[in-house]
Amino acid sequence: MGKTFTTPKALSKTHTHYCPGCTHGIVHRLVAEAIDDLGIQGKTVGIAPVGCAVLAYNYFDCDFQEAAHGRAPAMATGIKRVRPDLMVFTYQGDGDLASIGMGEIIHAANRGEKFTTIFINNAIYGMTGGQMAPTTMGGQRATTAPAGRDTAATGMPLRMANLLAELVTPGYITRQAVLKPQQVNKAKKAIKQAFQYQMEGKCFSFVEVVSTCPTNWGMTPLDALKWAEDTLLPYYELGDYKVPE
Amino acid sequence: MAKVLMKGNEAIGEAAIRAGCKNYFAYPITPQSEVAEYLVKRLPEEGGVFLQGESEVAVGYMIFGAAGAGERVMTTSSSPGISLMSEAISYIAAAQCPAVFVNIVRGGPGLGGILPSQGDYFQATKGGGHGDYHLLVMAPDGVQEAVEMTMQAFTLAEKYRGPVMIMGDGLIGQMMEPVEFPDDLKTEPTNKDDWATSGMDFRKSKKRNLVKSLFLDPTALNDNNLALKAKYEQMKKEEVQFELYNGDTDYQILITSYGTMSRVCRTAIDMLKEEGIEVAMLRPKTLFPFPEKAVFEAACKDSCKAVISIEMSMGQMVEDVERCVKGRRPVEFYGECGGDIPSPEKIIDIIKGLL
Amino acid sequence: MAFQHIIDEERCKGCGLCVNFCPKNVLEITDKVNAKGHFPAYQARPEDCIHCTICCIMCPDVAINIVETQTA
To answer: Which fold has domain B4-238?
Structure first.
């Protein structure tokens, strides 16, 4: 008894630069598996953000563009509009999407652009070394919130899935996590569903994935998973926030 | 080919279509919103793509995405909007994607005004965004040139795989003139299979393409900059366009001027000629690459006593003129901005003051 | 049908997620450093492995594969 498990074709052989235990790597695999399962590798164009995942284009074996910070949804709009036959996805972190790129993601979602966004919410700026992000929790330390985020001065953490679900335009808006196996398997289904909605030309699809950042949280990979479970999930509740009819 | 009376903004839109560009992303801004209002009707007739973005920032990146996927694409805006697009222009230059930007210049800085101006010369030719890059910049002096330069822009953008800018101004955008759309200016799109993200299936290739501008390795970044520089050097050799008006006379003064301002200078030159005073004008049609040799030679003519750059700005192109005259002649400047364009009579007074 | 559990020692960064989530406590972190300076995971008790792929699912570096092998 048992099962086989092989690395998806859409993932390149390149070793990732991500820190040990960083869940970016899991989500990369889930996206690559969706691309393999749906047989769209030759039609897919990914768009990398600015952040830890800027180098995502080294880890996927499909056409890729690299966006300016926060602008991936606008680039995806440009590609998808002129080449609706391409399968387009943006892969963005919380600094990229929820801070500088807020305008772009809201308007792309509101126009119902037919691409897919994978949004990694790890409540911190990773690549630049641990600054406070819009998703940083109240009291959570960051290099620009050394005593912990003061929500009285900087507002409450932004819940992107909830926010985008408020838009009247139809879409697939879901929040998943990759903190334990059951969540990873559910996230895999959600990501594949997102790409399927795109293949059907149905709607904009957005998968927020609650993730960890061991290095900038100052925790071991396992402690980070536990902290995310205990601290992030109660605030960033998982589930489908909007599903097209 | 029949001429048709058209407003500059609309003629620019039609020129893009005639040049084979079917994709337009833009954001409204006076004095050029008519381009979008024109293309929103015309592009669907051509099976093209029209989209009004949420900001010029976003539009800049819609252009980058579409260009990176290998499609011809254009946007039009005006000064403040071009400021917002300047980051994207830097990325597009670095990632080497062909794209056409039209700046219908208005008064600045800040919110400035909505009347014509030439205050974006530095922004266009010295790089409005970050890093060592250039735009190929063409400056029409009327609606016909705006049409021809717009059509040429797509060919040049693909030849140099980079952003090309048409720099008009509010007057050129708003006025109507009879125009024709020369078919021979249209070229077929070049093959982009070796770099565009057009989908591996469609290229029948197993090699994926990557459009990016990040080069963390210093040597790689330097190499990319050298590759860009080589293109700009090639532009300087092959793409310089200018006009020397009344240059076959023993002119005492050489005016340098471009766009709308050069039309007024042309009238002033004609009026002075009737008084027996010969003045010539060197009119750059490409602002980058700048007609360096032509300016130098025109300034050095024995009969020429002085050069004066006349602009609708506080003095920007004059710096390039000074650079190119190399001290051989005094270089003066006269300029007004705000939107009131100096009259021919005013120019005549200025010229006579130099004699 | 037999399965073989393979850990790519050079790709593994020794994050320990697989060790933690393995339901049969098969995996441990080796003290043998790899080329990148990480201490990869390895099967300490391979006989207990049930090839359930949970370690593969949780591995951020896709360093673990499970393949079918012809029965001996």
So the answer is: Rossmann fold (3.40.50)
